[in-house]
UniProtKB/TrEMBL annotation:
Pfam families the record matches: tRNA-synt_1c, tRNA-synt_1c_C, tRNA-synt_1c_C2
Gene name as annotated: glnS
InterPro entries linked to this entry: aa-tRNA-synth_I_CS, Gln-tRNA-synth, Gln/Glu-tRNA_Ligase, Gln_tRNA_ligase_bac, Glu/Gln-tRNA-synth, Glu/Gln-tRNA-synth_Ib_cat-dom, Glu/Gln-tRNA-synth_Ib_codon-bd, Glu_tRNA_lig_a-bdl
Protein name: Glutamine--tRNA ligase
The Glutamyl/glutaminyl-tRNA synthetase class Ib catalytic domain, residue ranges: 28-337
UniProt enzyme class: ligase
Reactions that this protein is recorded to catalyse: tRNA(Gln) + L-glutamine + ATP = L-glutaminyl-tRNA(Gln) + AMP + diphosphate
Source organism phylogeny: Bacteria, Bacillati, Bacillota, Clostridia, Lachnospirales
Predominant place of localization: cytoplasm
């Protein structure tokens, strides 16, 4: 008898399986419901891919819906950036993009229904008084003096709120639940407030706006969402979510399920902090490659596949935990190493001159595009008398076990010849300006040479045909040793988070590199053409990740 493979399911899938078996759910429908008040970050990617993945696994529906009930912070710019992020990650939503604001009329009618049922009332207490009346975790709250207004009076006052008859903040609509509830969210929460604000989607059509905890379950119910997947901070809000859909008598109410947020070590994800970094010009926008917004990761050169693989490794749990940023870097290395060509680029150049090589000669070396994937083919790289090599590949007085270039030593120029250092020149400050070598024409790579061996191989770029470029090297934006935040809440910024190298030289195959295209620079890491600042006249490359990893899979 053939054994079936046992597939381990996360706790959300186990809940959905049970709901389907017991008939509570017939079609699985999920949604990603961001508020358009900033750019999405890596934590949102987990929610996007989780919700989309569940809908796809159960052959259901996945909606993209903006929870745009707070027009003070919401912008069309953020709406557009979020749509781009979701689509870039490969999460295909059903139908059109949805907006909570499209349901404002239904929400208003739902509030009327609650008033008529005696489950909601108009309250004149100020926001500060409402907080005072709310009580504490140890003491019950006090009932508002307006709690027992008649249904007729509440209907009249609520209509007056909608018609703009009252000043902002003067009245709110509250649910009538239980001021002694041990759950603070159930102590007559505010459902609607008066606020004369222009909305990005509805303009000035409304001067009252619903609160998130009231709007969200209604949106889910209207759209037929079966499982409302959210993060753990909404766990205490679940009783209110259930109260709203129950009191409004939706025939197939959605079920809220909470999972743990993903915390990455030593990165800034809070929108408030990112906004401050942007506003103060510390970073050059929400897509600065030092950030972990999805837009920033895309600009830096991360791929949707790498982020999806990262989320698979992280998994889904009920308990909060931190994930090492090195795991994310591991995923992008694994994704790129078999896909992208390996090219030669010199980031800190010093000139190497081969004294016995013909002055005007240029020859072409056959170089594999990726040594681990032969089907990626071969390109031809020009070689000549004058080259650039990395400054660190030459030392006047090398330590032991230094196998690169130094006076009297012989190394292989990658994919080319053996060269031997015979001299070097320095400027008045003691910096090396030229390295002089001789070459052995019998040692050309691929010629079948089987003579003497050398221990060192260094890469190079031919000076006459080199493409000049700017390269940006990144470190963590925050000081890792001190942590992300100071005691006063300010950020521990790393002064070396960005290093710009203006005079880098690349092999000529990169001259036509397109924005967003990525490569492995031999020995230097993976790099991507910056899609924002790069031009055909001046290429700008961002380092995606170095070649070395501190993350070991399986540990």
């Amino acid at each position: 008898m053939e054994e079936k493979e046992v597939v381990s399911k996360n706790f959300i899938e186990q809940i959905i399986d049970k709901d389907l078996e017991e008939g509570h759910t017939h079609t699985v429908a999920t949604r990603f419901p961001p508020e358009p008040n900033g750019y999405l970050h890596i934590g949102h990617a987990k929610s996007i891919l989780l919700n989309y993945g569940l809908a796809r696994k159960y052959h259901g529906h996945f909606n993209l819906r903006f929870d745009d009930t707070n027009p003070t912070k919401e912008k069309t710019e953020f709406v557009e950036s979020i749509i781009r992020d979701v689509e870039w990650l490969g999460a295909k939503y059903d139908g059109e993009v949805r907006f909570a604001s499209n349901y404002f009329q239904e929400m208003y009618e739902a509030a009327i229904k609650l008033i008529k049922k005696g489950k909601a009332y108009v309250c004149d207490l100020s926001a500060e008084q409402i907080r005072e009346y709310r009580g504490t975790l140890k003491e019950p709250g006090k009932e508002s003096p307006y709690r027992n207004r008649s249904i007729e009076e509440n209907l009249e006052l609520f209509e007056g709120m909608k018609n703009g008859e009252f000043p902002d903040g003067s009245k709110v609509l509250r649910a009538k639940i239980d001021m002694a509830s041990p759950n603070m969210n159930m102590r007559d929460p505010v459902l609607y407030r008066v606020a004369r604000m222009s909305h990005h989607n509805t303009g000035d059509a409304w001067c009252i706006y619903p609160m998130y905890d009231f709007a969200h379950p209604i949106e889910d119910a209207i759209e037929g969402i079966s499982h409302s997947i959210c993060t753990l901070e909404f766990e205490d809000h679940r009783p209110l979510y259930d109260w709203v859909v129950r009191e409004l008598e939706y025939p197939e109410p959605p079920k809220q399920i909470e999972f743990a947020k993903m915390y990455l070590t030593n990165v800034v994800t809070g929108k408030r902090y990112i906004k401050r970094l942007v506003d103060e010009g510390i970073v050059d926008g929400w897509d600065d490659p030092r950030l972990v917004t999805i837009a920033a990761l895309r600009r830096r050169g991360f791929t949707p596949e790498s982020i999806r693989n990262f989320m698979e490794l992280v998994g889904v749990s009920k308990g909060n935990s931190s994930v090492d940023y090195a795991m994310l870097e591991y995923c992008i290395r694994e994704d790129l190493k078999m896909k992208r060509p390996r090219v030669m680029a010199i980031l800190d150049p010093v000139k190497l001159i081969i004294d016995n090589y013909p002055e005007d000669q240029i020859e072409y070396m056959d170089v594999m595009n990726n040594q681990e994937k032969e089907e990626m083919g071969v390109r031809q790289v020009p070689f000549g008398r004058e080259l650039y090599i990395e400054r660190e590949d030459f030392m006047e007085e090398p330590p032991k076990k230094y196998f690169r270039l130094y006076p009297g030593n012989e190394v292989r120029l990658m994919n080319a010849y053996f060269v031997k250092c015979v001299d070097y020149k320095k400027d008045e400050d003691g910096n090396i300006t030229e390295i002089h070598c001789t070459y052995d024409p019998e040692t050309r790579s691929g010629s079948g040479f089987t003579g003497r061996k050398v221990k060192g191989t260094i890469h190079w770029v031919a000076a006459p045909t080199a493409v000049k470029a700017t390269v940006r090297l990144y470190e963590n934006l925050v000081d890792e040793e001190k942590g992300v935040y100071n005691e006063d809440g300010s950020l521990n910024l790393n002064p070396n988070s960005l290093r710009v190298l203006e005079n880098c030289y690349l092999e000529p195959s990169l001259a036509e590199a397109r924005p967003g295209e990525s490569f492995q620079f031999v020995r230097n890491g993976y790099f991507c053409v910056d899609e924002k600042d790069s031009t055909p006249e001046r290429l700008v490359f961002n380092r995606i990740v170095s070649l070395k990893s501190s993350y070991k899979p399986g540990k």
